[in-house]
Amino acid sequence: MPFGLAQELPIPNERPIKQDDKLNGSGAVSKPKEFEAAIKPLRDYACEKRLSDLGIKFRVLPTENGEGACGVAYPIAIDTLANNITVKPDTALNCNAVEALAGWVEKSVIPAVSAYDSDKKLTSISQASTYVCRGRNNQKTAKLSEHATGNAIDIVAFDFSDGSSIKIEPRDRKGSDEEAFQKAVRFGACLHFTTVLGPGSDAFHDDHLHLDVAERRGGYRLCRFPQ
Fold first, then answer.
1. Which of 7, 13, 122, 136 could form a disulfide with 142 if both were Cys (CB 3.0 to 4.6 A apart)?
2. Do 186 and 198 meet the contact criterion of CB atoms below 8 Å apart?
3. Which string of b and e fits 175-203 if b means at least 16 CB within 10 Å?
């Protein structure tokens, strides 16, 4: 063949369609879900080490594979935070959300408990939701919630060593110690999470604190407090 002339390459035969392949509307092969689930981000061992260094005991759960963009590659269940504080029921969170939760509890919640009543110790935190595949505010037509990727937790109550607890509820202008405590931990959360919603934010958050680590342009934090 003369130098400089392109060689005509043979066209490879089409790959035969396997039994578990599916055709989409254009006739192209759609990969089965097992193929999609196999493509996972790298595990964040550095983050997991930071959790261990903070005294957090945790388990890495099997991958959560939901519909569409839902899912968590390496969901974490918290056994105990530092000081043997439990989070109940089991969580399924991304590592960075667990790290934010731990920082908030250590630097905002525990000092607030001490100021509220020095005889009490925080023993557990009750949550209503971590990973779940759904739209925002449980609305089917809404954008995907941060819960759907393991980036959010809904806090409903704080439990203390004497058996008492403080539940999240509307307390604005009640003038009580419980209102002061609830506001203190809520304001403190905005230093650790990028979204903080609760009573007074809207009708969907009157009975819990929604905390998430959503990434926004410019590092914007959405902390919606009562007026």
1. 136
2. yes
3. eeeebebbbbbbebbbebbbbbbbbebee
